[in-house]
Fold these 2 entries.
Entry 1:
Amino acid sequence: MGKKTLEIYSVELSGTKDVEQTDKEDGKERYRGLKNCFHSKKDHHTEKLKKELDLDDHKLSIKELEKKYGTNIITGLSSTQAAELLAQNGPNALTPPKETPEIIKFLKQMVGGFSILLWIGAILCWIAYGIQYSMNKSSSLDDVYLGCVLALVVILTGIFAYYQEAKSTNIMSTFNKMIPQQAFVIRDSEKKTIPAEQLVVGDIVEIKGGDRVPADIRLLSAQGCKVDNSSLTGESEPQARSSEFTHDSLLETKNIAFYSTTCLEGTATGMVINTGDRTIIGQIASLASGVGNEKTPIAIEIEHFVHIVAGVAVSIGILFFIIAVSLKYQVLDAIIFLIGIIVANVPEGLLATVTVTLSLTAKRMAKKNCLVKNLEAVETLGSTSIICSDKTGTLTQNRMTVAHLWFDNQIFIADTSEDHSNQVFDQSSGTWASLSKIITLCNRAEFKPGQESVPIMKRIVVGDASETALLKFSEVILGDVMEIRKRNHKVAEIPFNSTNKFQLSIHKTDDPNDKRFLMVMKGAPERILEKCSTIMVNGQEQPLDKSTAEAFHTAYMELGGLGERVLGFCHLYLPADEFPETYTFDVDAINFPTSNLCFVGLLSMIDPPRSTVPDAVTKCRSAGIKVIMVTGDHPITAKAIAKSVGIISANSETVEDIAKRLHIAVEQVNKRDAKAAVVTGAELKDMSPEQLDELLTNYSEIVFARTSPQQKLIIVEGCQRQNAVVAVTGDGVNDSPALKKADIGIAMGIAGSDAAKNAADMVLLDDNFASIVTGVEEGRLIFDNLKKTIAYTLTKNIAELCPFLIYIIVGLPLPIGTITILFIDLGTDIIPSIALAYEKAESDIMNRKPRHKKKDRLVNEQLAIYSYLHIGLIQAVGGFVVYFTVYAQEGFKPNILINLRVEWEDSNVNDLEDSYGQQWTWYQRKYLEWTGYTAFFVGIMVQQIADLIIRKTRRNSIFQQGLFRNKVIWVGIASQIIIALILSYGLGSITALNFTMLRPQYWFVAVPYAILIWVYDEVRKLFIRLYPGSWWEKNMYY
Amino acid sequence: MRRQLRSRRAPASPYGYRYRLDDQDEVNQNYLADEEEEAEEEARVMVVPDLEEEEEEEEEEEEEEEEEIEEEEKEEEKGQGRPTGNAWWQKWQIVNEYLWDPEKRMSLARTGQSWSLILVIYFFFYASLAAVITLCMYTLFLTISPYMPPFTERVKPPGVMIRPFAHSLNFNFNVSEPDTWQHYVISLNGFLQGYNDSLQEEMNVDCPPGQYFIQDGDEDEDKKACQFKRSFLKNCSGLEDPTFGYSTGQPCILLKMNRIVGFRPELGDPVKVSCKVQRGDENDIRSINYYPESASFDLRYYPYYGKLTHVNYTSPLVAMHFTDVVKNQAVPVQCQLKGKGIINDVINDRFVGRVIFTLNIET
């Protein structure tokens, strides 16, 4: 067993330098998902894709290729040929995902939500006027005005929502701007630089290290060319490319380089075989656009809420239409009642408020490095119950760092924190002196010049990940490495290659008295050990005996078990007599010894977790969010990182762990005992959906290792089958289907590809997992606060609706007009309802489970009932008291008001008697009616202040929450009062607005009701707190 | 295993199974969220689940609409295109069962007990709300005097109205066709019944003209009213000419000023009435006779003490006898009140201190 694992390690280690072996092992598997994706597409589409995949360009000889594409590898295409092909096949660029035209987006806002109801209201107004006009040519234009006002309201709120949407999309457009790419191409026998967009099939292009591959190309010749296929496969291991045909599959053969991958080093010449959307990446991107975007939870909630409110509005409207008709009202009047009921019932300002609230949160989240592309996604994070996270870059720092050292038979821990600030291991030993020398000298990585002022850890390095880690490590400890290298002049070097698995260099020493050459070597530990006959302990060379070899193996196993990449280091001072100063080393003939060296030590490296991540994972856990790690890395590395960040908690074991502990076979372990599971892509491949479901259900801590990005999609779908709201992080191009499929796709801002960012709903600007957690917190808070906002807004609807119902049934003069209602909905109530978005959480929202998608609704029965039938009714009563007070004090006592409607509204009746026998002209009555509107308006406004205060909390007392903690609430209250004052006293003389100057005392009539609302709600909350789980809580907690 | 257990006890209807699935989802959810519950959950599954627990679960089911939405969502999720008719039938079943579930004796997802509790609570809540509003209105009436309204600004300055009034201020009639003016006569006769001399002499006192008829004393004392006899209107009283001049093309129109409690024309000047052509040729109306001849409302009819104590108060009238008006064309007439403290030019209110009507007398 031990032996076997060792081999795996060596594969992993060699992976540092050469990908060949890993490629062979899991290359097939890595692309499997990709093919699967293709096959899962619809019939004719599949056929087409299959055909594309069946391309045999990699198998063809150069001559055949030339013939096929009508080109010549020396002269390239002619300009005319190229122009023809360009016209025929289109530019070499990915078609951007189909954007909904702006006008459609705008129209959607115009008819979405309540707009349609309001349009109906407006149209009914015009119809009513039409009927009136046909009966009486001089009928008043009031209905036309009202219709226009309603239409205006719809259009304005529509424009507002559209503007908000557009603003949040604009943030993204900065990301979409791609730097125009240039390609080096041979055409008309000349080397030219043209924009990559103009490449056509058959073009001969040259690529060099640092370039992005401009199209899918078949390599014709290559010199040390390595590409980073991470945008395609998610693996960031560099892969060698050559002109040889090595594999039947187009995806795995070495002589094809793919569009949008990066050439890391070397140069190559190739022929373009696919451009634009026909490239492999293009096909994946179009696949992503084929995956339907899931509706966000908050969109579902808002839709649900709109359904409820619209349902209530329409049913009450129709009910009272029937009542009105059966009460012998004219149909025309009944229509006008219907309009009033609709306007009263629809919270016109609410959707705009929700948009503002969401964008406020989006802004707040952007400050915390979560850039939200789709406003509605703000809340989605809050309801997330599973996060499928990448490892590299998200959970880890995305850079190799020296984690452990082994020398003098001891393991030392190196500091892996972000700044490497304190390296505390013992540096006095002579072995360390030797080891540090090897680390410094046997290293080809270099800092890019001109970075002296940059902190070491942030400097840009030319070289691969391991060498960079070693370079930075030694720079931190020893100081100027480049200077040391200069003093120890390098005379010969064998770079790393996959056959010998070591790197060697020979140096002159900086000791002027020592004329010996120093040979330093590093590489796969077992290979290095094979070459050694001695080992250095405490600065002294000792023969390498069995016990020291044993110690080496133990250390190697231990470090490997931590998922770390281990390198062995050894050196040899070449005897001066055999190798005089003038000796010429020949690295091809190897005219120097490479065995019987002196083993110095081991160094292990890991991509360490970000320091904030363990805390964030703990937070997720207490918030009931399951964190699943999905990585392309080796299971052991994945598990080690998972353990160190807490995705696998310290005391939980996998089935394999239990088996190992109890010394029994894996099959004998009771699977229920294991909480954690590490599943490899290969295992996942063989799982049926049911087995995957079972896995996801039964294990609380899951790590998927060695998975292809395509398998992410399978995992996401599995999670969604559990009814979970799934967040997925991703950066590669072929993460994009998974990002789209997820309820919320989170792309990495730094490492992420454009395709991933396009597919995602959210972009993490700092690639940091911890930012997701703050996002979750904000999302949950916004859900709670939206609940409060909606409860606040719905309440007054009853107070606006009741007047109409009473007006129809009892025949009182109309207590509140339609325009006045609009002034409440879109005037006094707007700022307060936004202010609720600033409310702090009542309790630790990160300590409760994510909401259940189907059970914890934004607007539930309790909320609607409590708002409508409790507080709403109190408000209506309060409003009526103000109304009756005004009328009674002017001479119309309530008893005389009953059934007065017809005479009251007859403009020919100009001597209507009140309770005192006084006679009123029509206009005098109208003015009194408007005073009544204003009074009712003020009554509602005063009570809405109380409503606003009580909505600050749902369970806690206001005094626990703090009356003054949320300052914006007070801004809201002030705005309410000021707007009301302006309407009454400022605009009181404009008759069209139906406001009048109200006597000051009427402002206070509703105050007792406001106090009643507050007291009533405090009592409700008190009982909820006193009797949790009781009947009261079930019915009264929203 | 859990799934099997659940499905075995699922009712035959596919909808029932759907619910079980939902429960399953919930269980999963808990599972995912809280591994502590794992053991507990398991124990529950092992034990035969009792009906009690299930009822509770059912009770938490949500509104009709929501279920429908859920249903739709489910449908989409599953993506199994069932025949639409079947889906509608299922929906109907769900609604039906929601309204009345015979198995659990529940209506609208509540048991009888739950319903009665709800009703009792709401009864008390609304009863106390009603009590509060009653109390408020009661205290309101305590503060308002039944004899004198607290504010009279809105009803001042007085409005003006004319008789006959037939829901229109256009007097169109043809002298030779009695049918066209008969209803004016009937209306005037009816209106003047209360002004019959006999009635006025019986009910009201003859108080001295030219001065306010001020009756001091307690607010709640009954007040006497001054006589305004029909005969004061002379030619327009309908006593001599029962057609009020309509038969001769010389119509009488009575003008009255709206009653306002406590209103007194200022400085002892009675309010006068004057009419003229509103727009057009002033000579369209060549003469108007006013009755009483002073064309004013005598001061003795003021102040008005309100309906409650001033029961027999008779509003004074001024009759306008349009003796010579241009015939066969519409003549707009504006009659205004004139006097100190009288406003007759409010733009919005064409009945304050004035009245505008048209005469179109055809011959």
Entry 2:
Amino acid sequence: MTDSKYFTTTKKGEIFELKAELNSDKKEKKKEAVKKVIASMTVGKDVSALFPDVVNCMQTDNLELKKLVYLYLMNYAKSQPDMAIMAVNTFVKDCEDPNPLIRALAVRTMGCIRVDKITEYLCEPLRKCLKDEDPYVRKTAAVCVAKLHDINAQLVEDQGFLDTLKDLISDSNPMVVANAVAALSEIAESHPNSNLLDLNPQTINKLLTALNECTEWGQIFILDCLANYTPRDDRESQSICERVTPRLSHANSAVVLSAVKVLMKFMEMLPKDLDYYGTLLKKLAPPLVTLLSAEPELQYVALRNINLIVQKRPEILKHEMKVFFVKYNDPIYVKLEKLDIMIRLASQANIAQVLAELKEYATEVDVDFVRKAVRAIGRCAIKVEQSAERCVSTLLDLIQTKVNYVVQEAIVVIKDIFRKYPNKYESVIATLCENLDSLDEPEARAAMIWIVGEYAERIDNADELLESFLEGFHDESTQVQLQLLTAIVKLFLKKPTETQELVQQVLSLATQDSDNPDLRDRGYIYWRLLSTDPVAAKEVVLAEKPLISEETDLIEPTLLEELICHIGTLASVYHKPPSAFVEGSRGVQHRRIPPRAGSVESAESPEVGQSGSSEAPPAVIPSQGDLLGDLLNLDLAPPTATVPSVQPSMQMGAMDLLGGGLDSLLGGDIGGSPSMGAGLGAAPTVMPAALGGAPAVGGGLGDLFDLGGGVGMPTGFYVVPKTLWLPAMKAKGLEISGTFARRGGIIQMDMSLTNKAMSVMTDFAIQFNRNSFGMAPAGPLQVLTPLSPNQTIDVSLPLSTNGPVMKMEPLNNLQVAVKNNIDVFYFSCQFPLSLLFVEDGKMERQVFLATWKDIPNDNEAQFQIKDVHLNSDAASNKLQGSNIFTIAKRTVEGQDMLYQSIKLTNSIWVLAEMRVQTGNPNYTLSIKCRAPEVCQFVYQCYEMVLKN
Amino acid sequence: MIGGLFIYNHKGEVLISRVYRDDIGRNAVDAFRVNVIHARQQVRSPVTNIARTSFFHVKRSNIWLAAVTKQNVNAAMVFEFLYKMCDVMTAYFGKISEENIKNNFVLIYELLDEILDFGYPQNSETGALKTFITQQGIKSQTKEEQSQITSQVTGQIGWRREGIKYRRNELFLDVLESVNLLMSPQGQVLSAHVSGRVVMKSYLSGMPECKFGMNDKIVIDKQGKGGTTDDTVKSGKQSIAIDDCTFHQCVRLSKFDSERSISFIPPDGEYELMRYRTTKDIILPFRVIPLVREVGRTKLEVKVVIKSNFKPSLLAQKIEVRIPTPLNTSGVQVICMKGKAKYKASENAIVWKIKRMAGMKESQISAEIELLPTNDKKKWARPPISMNFEVPFAPSGLKVRYLKVFEPKLNYSDHDVIKWVRYIGRSGIYETRC
């Protein structure tokens, strides 16, 4: 008799038949019926109607039948909560059974029944089982606490189960300890701040002891829990490492990877000059290599992790290149991962071997793999300079194969090689040009066009080549169109005489016949540049390009660090932080590597916390988006996949701040090409009239060449030194410090943007929240070049006061949102009120007197300005620089009385009387204003101006 | 942790479905079927994320096993668990097939309930499981038996039960190695390694304490320091450098880490004691010398010589050389000195089989391959020539030096145990590019 027959019954009236069988007197028949029910349940049939009948079978001493009934209960109890209550008695009774297997079964199943009423009954049996004499029951009860917590967290806390669970960490049975650790870790994850898993040296010691004795799975739970502990000092860290290293020889790969996680994390704390540190590094390599002889799925997990480990500590595997060579029969996912690691490990020492392998791979069958292999050759050339020549000749060999996708891929990477080593390998251009016809992918076409444009002066028939592309201009993808436009402009600037017609043609194609705003805008820019100032055009279009660097797809250090703390888990497989794919509160905690003891580097830059690899981060090929980059055509995508995007995880609370403003910030007009189409209204006559309908107009073209022209203009306005507004930590590596200034009647916000991340930042834009004085950016944020890592850019943003008004607290608070290609960041800063003091703030004497009297005395505020060592004239002069005008001066009994007026941008007048006594460094200031709330801030301006 | 576990047949029909967590809905079963089993393109990763739910899958013949989760689980653990699940099922009912799974679905549910609790893997040693999860239904147990079961399942030595008795104490050690090679057409070794396993079958009474010794270079060198110079010279030649090894959970790892001694209480019956890997001084049992010549566009001449490289007194068996042929092959003529060779059109290869071959011999095959003219621009990728064989020695050079058995409580000594050792070297991926 076989059980498979249960899967095949499909006749009608089945339910009724089953019902009859379930209520049969014969035990065997009953059991058969329950089996049928479970089989139906498995294939997705609804058998919930049989609930009461199945539950009736629960009272049995046949364990197999009991288990089947329990299985049914777990599935359907939720849909029939009232009926489920019927089962409670049996559960409670089973929890008292003399057989420990039955006690455990009951408590295990009860925890899986997610019905509130049942959980109430569960508490007492669970409490007993947690203290059961049999370890099998205790280990089951420990997991049950986690189950109950998932259903009703409050109940678990109220009943004191958490404390009992903590006690189980000291249990004599290692498996009970392991399950208790697993349960506590899970509960702790949903209470990020509770000190639930109170890890101290004593508990750690208990865990380490249990580690030697429990099952392989238990070892994983314990190691994963250990990884969350932060040792007090390097000695403790070392002693834990010593006790964890034996796990590296375990047959279970998950045990090995979890041990690697603990070691990678704790190693960070060890001083590098310690002998043990070196020993540990050496011990890590062999187990990692051994993981590659596991089954393919595990190999994949291991490779994804090794990819992280190699980025964090390249020294561990630098001699193990060969084990990453691809085997013919490897599954494709293993092949692709191995290839990635090979490139990371490529160095001058092993490049010959690597190249020979890559060449071999480029002839394989799988298209994706072949493409990646060809790209890898390009990356080797860029990474190891000595190999560049060999790489290029290998690529040429591959082009000779005429396999279409190989040729295209090769051309794309050769373009990058040209970027890295300009004027070195141009001899191959002829070969490339032979393959022009076979290119059908946009990326390859664009790369080829770029090459032709870049080296137009050396290609005799460059104009013919480009012209041939121009014929089907409108059928090309945008990427190719943009590239073609630029290439022809380059050609024109290099050979103006023969190509005038061509450039006219492409400009009119781009501007008149195209619907693509990017293309049109770029066309206009070129057009205008060429027609107004060909010399400037040359400077812009043919400018020297920044070098590209070797590493192109490194994971950002902060993310890498977090992922290292998640070795072995899904996060390390996806290369994404858990918050990116886990819902709810779980996994949102960011894990960090503990800082190295006594490390100088980490003390200097705690927010970067990258003590291990403080070498200058390599520059990265800029990605697309910004204007100058566009004009120079730096926007071809980098040769490999970009860094996985980081999900917004912090500062979610600040989202609402900007209200509607946020929408417009994220809106299309800034996203695409900031500062484009600038001032075209006033363009020369070459511009077609159709321009009237062009998208929003920003700052003038002049801005392009005259970065923040106002900076440094001599005025008397006192400018506060720049302060840190947005720390890099909060903005994924973007640091902003800044101040405000008023120059020539224009309010300016001076900012220094620093890129402290690993990747290039582009597409900057700025927006303010509504504020007390209606301050708003008067133009777009002019960050014209991509901001490379470690680079700082100073920008001056002109502000207007015509924006929407909303009273802020404090009055001079300004909430700012800055966007770049990575994310939107928020910060707030306070501006000195003197920013708003206008130049025509000098009141007529008569008016002053009348106004002074007119303002009720309640509105008068008095302040003391202490420790000013200036005489009244000097003070008056100084104040005038900040648009605080002295209207009259009276001297009474050796006391100078200065009468002053100020006008704010919103036409509020502020009147002041300042008393200066000769020889007394303390001034008395009385301020009167119809809006008394500004007085405090005016006083601050006095303080600031007079004391600086 | 693991939220649910599903088993499907090749059509994507669910055979087993067990959900452990509330966040996994019934639709997860269908999501996997639609997106992975029925996917138009072959799946390119064993981990798939569909709508924030992660699926881990492994395939055994045409059966899919999938674990599902919505959390950041330990991915390595999930795969290890899936493999273990396969092992357990195989130990219970043999081959994993649709028929067997359907026939044993009650048993599988019972197992899943036991070895995975709320998604946390629990003791999954077959030895222990078989004491209380049986196909015959539960036997009536005495109280002692019950507590023995539970203490074994949760105990420190979860892999062995007490009170085992054999009239004849006997053990078998198999050193099974697979030798892997990638060689360039010019005969240069691009990469070579041996991955080996020591499989033990133990039929020993009581709770025997075992100690296993092999010619591990580190151990021998350490001992050599204390011994006479004669010893070091003698043993120095024979010792091998082990790159890395992993052990069954019965081996005391901390002892290995500190003293490099392998001591353990073995499970009863067959199990894998250790795995190891070596890369140095590997004896490559065969050398393949390929010669491929393209004669015009429609003909290919292939000549392959194999040379055996071990003691003439030993015999290699089950030798098979696989020579790939282009896709547009129209006909093949083969001449070989020894064995049988056949062109298999369905596999695009010439398969040359030799039953036995002694050491230090040489054999040759030559073939003429006729090609259909094609206008396909793409060149033939020339996959490597692969080889299969079996030799009666360990290509790594590993030697078992001793396996000592101590059982102080019972009255048998190490000398009374009958021990058998056998070495088998097999080809892993043994390829020569041509």
